[in-house]
Design goal:
This protein is mainly beta. Helices cover about 5% and strands about 40% of the residues. The protein is built from four helices and 52 strands. The strands form 14 sheets. A seven-stranded mixed β-sheet has the order 3-4-5-13-7-11-10, with no helix packed on it. Strands 2-1-6-12-8-9 form a six-stranded antiparallel β-sheet, with no helix packed on it.
């Protein structure tokens, strides 16, 4: 026991030395005479936990030094001008809601204050002005970093370590401010037992009569009385510095029983329990202070005994005391949502007069209405029913709802696009707002505007029409085309007589070709047959796209002169018995390169060749000429070599059955058709056949032999070249 007491006394002596270092404005041993035993007795009697012992000693030593040297304590953060005068600080009046949401990325427009928490029911004491750390506070550091004023930007810090909630404010914007911290001070001049404030003074006007705050609080419950616990307070002070009761919210750590608080997950500093309240929104109605200066102040403090922390995230914004609506009017029977200020304990909506209708609940922050009318809401803030206030709004009802519609045409870049309003009801629309590229900017307010685009592509055109406050919009898509680059080609150079092929590489439009010798066509890829040298020159095509965009391109055609082939074949038709044909070259220049092809596999380069055909038939004789420019010409002629038709007719036969010359047998060669007729001397037909292999045996159809006499025969044939040949003669029938 004596060893433990000695250890505690050594600890206290060490504490004394540390605190002495903090009071640099005192000379000598300022704590000489301080009764450590009495202080320890008080600690034991009051049951103060080990985490609070340094703070308790610090407070007692501070009181001792102040009394010993007759020092006046630092002033308390009291309401009224006396506080400002006592510390030499008079916050300047700011323009309406300067940097309220800290969206400047700093704490400009705000005043930072730090002080001691001697009593959680009172204001801070022992005050210092300015941000901590100075001169501008910290940026994006967690509560573990022992700063007092920290700008929290966006989601940089992520979620709070104790509460798990996002450090991003629910209000508009990305920034908030972290006040105080959770550092454990031990025997340093402590952060615990200290508080941090942030405030701004401004003049109330119509534009800022509604003040909205957001806060998230983390407090460590040390099990103390309310006067010693960590706390958070948001308050509005009047022009005299007095707190306005209905505009003051205060939260004290109370064993987790404070409404809306949950138990935290981080480790307490010294045997306490951490509780947190996630982001909460509250609103202040400043209308009663119109034209007056007020001060919005946030304060958060750790417990008075220095062992249990408290910190908070805060954000603010301001605006007119009004109720925003989802639409400026009830258009037809469309629903409109009316929103009251956030953060109230209760809402009671009603219709003023006989016009109006509320759809659904009348006790929520927002209501839905489907008729124009006069609507009001009675708002009860967290400060109690005595602080309730009523605000109202009038929503006009417009029975006619516009329907936006229009027409337009896709155009080519450089052309003027014309748009025609087709909205209904005709004659009732009061305003037209045209957004020609649907980027949110109104480009024209005429009913039927024109517009010249500077870039090609797909354009979304938006028309918003109005009938009073009722609006309706529609979006249509149009094309703005650019002149399409085209490429024109040909397969030249050409030789006279060849076909000219013109090609353009673009499809999906119309074509108009023009060229020498009056050439004109609307084909995409035209072919010009039997070219002449007069057709050489520039051929141009005008391409018109489906949007009317016109592009012109051209190509140059070269046409070289070609030789003229000509010859005579003598004879061009002959018999196989005389198969020789003489060819005479009559071409334009017989000195040019030429080749004869006789059609039977034989060729010649002789100027005037002679050729003998070996077999009857039709042959294509051809001469091919090539001039020095490489241009060619050719000529073909048909050469016929006829095979003579041969007919052998005997002059007698003897049908006596001896097996020798018993039939009249005709022999033929080189024919395609054949007919044989036998007549008696009186012209009577005795025999007829179309079969050259069928002979006459001298008998009638019954097998009876005709009389011995001389008979007349007639033969008709068609030779191989379709020539008709007729022969007539006589034959003797003998025994």
């Amino acid at each position: 026991m004596r060893k433990l007491t000695l250890t505690i006394l050594l600890l206290i002596c060490c504490s004394y030395a540390v605190f002495s270092q903090q009071y640099k404005f005192f000379g000598g041993d300022s704590l000489n005479g301080f009764d450590y035993d009495a202080t320890w007795h008080e600690i034991a009697t009051k049951g103060i936990g080990s985490a609070d012992i340094p703070g308790y000693f610090g407070n007692k030593q501070f009181e001792f030094v102040s009394k010993k040297y007759n020092l006046h304590p630092f002033p308390a953060l009291q309401q009224g001008a006396s506080f400002k005068n006592n510390i030499g600080y008079a916050p300047s009046l700011q323009a309406s809601c300067t940097n309220f949401g800290f969206e400047n990325g700093n704490l400009s427009g705000w005043t930072g204050i730090t002080g001691r928490n001697y009593n959680s029911n009172n204001a801070l004491s022992s005050l210092s002005t300015g941000f901590s750390p100075g001169p501008n506070g910290a940026i994006n550091q967690s509560p573990n970093n022992c700063n007092r004023h920290t700008l929290v930007s966006g989601t940089t810090l992520g979620n709070d370590a104790c509460g798990g909630f996002s450090t991003l404010s629910p209000l508009s914007g990305n920034n908030a401010v972290l006040l105080n911290n959770k550092c454990f001070p031990f025997f340093a001049f402590p952060s615990y037992g200290y508080g941090t404030s942030l405030e701004q003074t401004f003049s109330v006007s119509q534009s800022n009569a509604l003040l909205t705050i957001a806060y998230a609080v983390v407090l460590e419950d040390g099990g103390h009385s309310n006067s010693e616990q960590p706390y958070f307070r948001a308050e509005v002070l009047d022009a005299q510095g007095n707190a306005i009761g209905c505009l003051t919210y205060k939260i004290i750590a109370q064993n987790g029983s404070t409404p809306g608080f949950l138990q935290g997950t981080c480790q307490a500093n010294s045997g306490g329990t951490v509780y947190y309240k996630p982001w909460t929104i509250a609103s202040f109605n400043l209308a009663a202070y119109m034209g007056q200066n007020v001060t919005i102040r946030f304060t958060v403090a750790s417990c008075t005994l220095a062992g249990h922390f408290g910190y908070a995230y805060v954000d603010a914004e301001c605006g007119p005391l009004a109720m925003p609506t989802s639409s400026a009017a009830v258009c037809g029977s469309n629903n409109v949502v009316i929103s009251a200020p956030a953060g109230a304990t209760s809402y009671a909506w009603s219709v003023v007069g006989n016009s109006g209708n509320i759809v659904g609940s009348t006790t929520n922050q927002n209501i839905t209405v489907n008729q124009g009318g006069h609507y009001q809401v009675t708002i009860t803030p967290p400060t109690g029913a005595s602080c309730s206030y009523t605000i109202d709004t009038i929503i006009p009802g417009i029975p006619i709802v516009p329907v936006a519609n229009f027409s337009g045409t896709s155009v080519c870049l450089g052309s003027v696009a014309q748009f025609t309003d087709l909205s209904t009801p005709t004659g009732s629309v009061t305003a037209w707002n045209w957004d020609f590229d649907n980027n949110g900017t109104v480009d024209d307010t005429n009913q039927n505007p024109t517009y010249s685009y500077t870039t090609p592509g797909t354009k979304q055109v938006k028309l918003t029409v109005e009938i009073g406050p009722c609006t309706k919009d529609t979006v249509l898509t149009f094309q703005v085309g650019a002149a399409t680059p085209i490429a024109v080609s040909n397969t030249g150079p050409y030789c006279a007589g060849q076909s000219i092929q013109l090609d353009v590489n673009q499809t999906g439009g119309t074509y108009q070709w023009e060229g020498p010798m009056g050439f004109s066509t609307t084909l995409q890829n035209p072919v010009i047959s039997n070219s002449t040298v007069n057709m050489a020159g520039v051929y141009s095509v005008t391409f018109t796209s489906s949007l009317g965009c016109v592009t012109t391109a051209s190509t140059s055609i070269s046409i070289l002169p070609s030789p003229t082939a000509d010859f005579i074949a003598d004879p061009q038709e002959t018999q196989i018995l005389n198969p020789i044909v003489n060819f005479t070259n009559l071409s334009s220049d017989t000195t040019q390169n030429f080749v004869w092809f006789f059609g039977d596999g034989i060729s010649s380069t002789t100027v005037h060749p002679q050729h003998s055909y070996e077999n009857p038939g039709e042959y294509i004789a051809k001469i091919v000429l090539t001039n020095e420019l490489g241009c060619k010409d050719s000529l073909e002629k048909v050469i016929r070599i006829n095979a003579d038709a041969l007919i052998f007719v005997p002059n007698s036969f003897s049908p006596n059955g001896d097996g020798l010359n018993d039939e009249f047998a005709v022999s033929v060669w080189g024919i395609t058709t054949y007919q044989l007729k036998i007549f008696n001397r009186w012209g009577e037909l005795m025999f007829e056949t179309n079969d050259p292999l069928k002979n006459w045996n001298g008998k009638d159809a019954n097998g009876k032999l005709f009389q011995i006499d001389t008979y007349i025969w007639k033969i008709e044939i068609t030779d191989l070249y379709n020539q008709q040949v007729e022969r007539v003669g006589h034959v003797n029938m003998i025994r």
